[in-house]
UniProtKB/TrEMBL annotation:
Membrane topology category: Multi-pass membrane protein
PANTHER family documented for this protein: PROPHAGE BACTOPRENOL-LINKED GLUCOSE TRANSLOCASE HOMOLOG (PTHR38459)
Protein family (similarity comment): Belongs to the GtrA family.
Ranges of residues in domain GtrA/DPMS transmembrane: 2-115
Name of the protein this chain belongs to: GtrA family protein
Organism: Oerskovia merdavium
Amino acid sequence: MKYLVVGGLSFLVDAGLLWLCTSLLGWAVWLGATIGFWTGVLVNFTLNRIVMNRDKSSLLTQTSRYGVLLAFNYVVTLGILHLTTSWGVPVVVAKTAIVAGSTCWNYVLYRLWVFA
């Protein structure tokens, strides 16, 4: 349950900034996606470290592993957003679908690898 609450807050920050930057400010999707993604990442890592972490002393290991997972998630996010928005899918709808998929593999990897 805690994972879903943390993820939900992170998603609101991410998608909210994406929408703000692209819809209200008129910025390019890649820029809004980048700002939203990395701000959401900061919120997510900080809250997950508090909620899921069993070993408070391993910040360097956790940060390194989290970074690898983030790089993968970031590339997937930009690729799918580029593809789906070129098809006319609204950016927040596409982002929601991406997050739904990545939530599954992130949960497993957080528990077994990043915050183990």
